Amino acid sequence: MKKIKKYALILVLSFASIFSVGFVDNYFEVSKNLDIFTSLYKELNIFYVDETDSGELMKTAIDAMLESLDPYTTYIPESEKEDFEFMTTGQYGGIGAVITKDGDWVFVSEPYEGFPADKAGLIAGDKFVEIAGKSVKGKSTEDVSKVLKGEPNTSVKVLVEREGVNKPFEVKITREEIKLNSVPYYAEVSDSIGYIRTRSFTRNISKEVTEAFNELNADNQLKGLILDLRGNPGGLLNEAIRMSNLFINQGKEIVFTKGKVKQWDKSYKTTNTPLDTVIPLVVLISRSSASASEIVSGAIQDLDRGVVLGQRSFGKGLVQQTRKLSYNAQLKVTTAKYYIPSGRCIQALDYSNRDEDGSVGKIADSLRTEFKTLVNKRTVYDGGGITPDIEIEPHKYSNILRSIISKRHIFNFANTFRINNDSIPSAKTFVVNDEIYDDFKQFLNDKEYEYETKTEKTISSIKEDAENEKYFDDLEEELEALSLKMEQSKNNDIERFRSEIVEVLEAEIATRYYYQKGKIEATLKHDKELASAIDLLNDLEKYNAILVGDSIE
Fold it and tell me: What is the pLDDT of residue 552?
């Protein structure tokens, strides 16, 4: 009973702080509903037939309440605080490895180069059998991650099973502070054209981009720059402003926020001397470029500073603040919407209108409002995400490739390849030749990777309709022949889609030898969007025509 009263008091005090901000008009409704909730919670604890977990029950209630709002207002209990801090700082205490689950076991998916797991000799494919003397079988990646993380300079012993090694062996790993760079890769990708890849907008991303640019520019005076924000989910708002400021003059408004609490509305302007305001700039975005990535790409587009290329971005134009709660918990709450220089908000109009990958779904033109860029008065639109100046259809994997990836056959083949081959050429030059591809096909011989094509689904649907409409007896021979022909054709998919399978194989194998940098280098060899950006920067007439709004044939 005391515990119930304590929860009620916490909730009342929390709402009292809301009243102080000026929402006294709702006092009666808030008090009434708090009283109902407290009464219900008390009755459940006293009379429910089974024992209840008070903490789990409360978290379920909180999560359900927040789910009725937007997707970004979330409750962060103390147990998840470290994961949240990693998202904003890029730092945590642990072994420095990506882990994944396959069946009952958790495996090393990728050790970070130079971090404890790598130093201790762990490699991709290593299976955790025990951690700190306790079996890992049946544990989730979250369970294992919590045990592997910890204070720097503490150690953890793991029992590991590895392909090609007769029996499990023990490894002692000393945890460190893991700090992942926000810029995992940069290079000169063509004659005097620089490329900078970003991961997320954690602290110091603008500093890392500055260092990368200066190094590239020092080696060879750059005539163009490609800033890659694809897959970058965003992060800190202040870093988005600083990043924009690298290429935009001092004193320019990058974003302004508006919310319910008017005194929190704010304009964010560039305050520093820019890095470079004249170099031709192409920004790459994708459907998973979100939040801070959209501020940067949107500001560069609205101020006519560079060309945006790729796919329409995610469409997250909401600002969150973290509010401290009792017992080290936190609330990440949406407090405002942000608007970029043209005045448009890039938040998707409907939270539920999303594609499978979470990005903005199709929006009717009638629901979108037209805006103008500030310098050249080009037309841009709100309604969800940043629409690129040059749109490129994303590559869609074939059914067979999606299947063999999901079944982890490429991952496992790369592990076996690494064990059997001490070295490969550089990631930039390594190719999966006929011999390696034949080995991969042999590797797949006893593996399951069933998949159903759209054509097969259509044939099945025709069969079903024919049966329902009493035509099947007349068409059975032709339909069965069509099914057989389709099956024979499908058996050749491993060759038909060889080129795209090879691309993924090369990247996965390169990761085993050259870590994340190798994976990026192997991927860039086949990157059509990067190639388009390079072509554009080599054609300044076309580049400038896009910026002034001329149509390009």
Answer: 55
pTM, full prediction: 0.84
Active site residue 366: no
Phi, psi of 371 (to 5 degrees): -130, 170
228/199 Cα distance (integer angstroms): 9
By the 8 A CB rule, do 156 and 175 touch? yes
pLDDT tens digits along 454-494: 888 888 888 888 888 888 888 888 888 888 887 777 778 99
CB 311 within 8 A of CB 231: no
- Give me the pLDDT at residue 229, please: 98
pLDDT at 1: 43
Marked catalytic residue, from 316, 342, 382, 519: 316
Active site residue 316: yes
267 is catalytic: no
Token representation of residue 396: 């869609």
The b-or-e profile of 14-37 (16+ CB within 10 A means b, else e) is ebeeeeeeeeeeeeeebeeeeeee
Helices (H), 351-453: 399-406, 409-420, 434-444
Return the closest-CA partner of residue 304 out of 277, 325, 285, 284: 277
Give the whole-angstrom CA distance, residue 534 versus residue 176: 39
Degrees, nearest 5: CA angle 302-308-311: 120
Closest CA to 208 of 238, 232, 185, 225: 185
Q: Which residues of the chain have pLDDT under 70?
A: 1-25, 79, 81-91, 349-366, 551-553
Closest listed residue to residue 395, CA positions, set 489, 526, 283: 526
In the chain, the amino acid numbered 521 is E
The active-site residue out of 109, 291, 313, 342 is 291
| DSSP characters over 419-444 | HH-S--S-TTT----HHHHHHHHHHH
* pLDDT computed for residue 269 by the predictor: 97
Amino acid in position 419: I
Question: Within 10 Å of residue 184's Cβ, how many Cβ atoms?
Answer: 16
pLDDT for 3 = 47
pLDDT for the residue numbered 283: 98
**∠300-301-304 over CA atoms, to 5°?**
85
E strand map for 62-184: 74-76, 91-94, 97-102, 105-111, 127-131, 134-135, 155-161, 169-174, 176-179
| Active-site residue identified among 118, 228, 302, 304 | 302
User: How confident is the model at residue 183, as a pLDDT?
Assistant: 97
Which residue has 């820019």 as its token pair? 274
For residue 149, give the 3-state DSSP assignment. Answer: coil
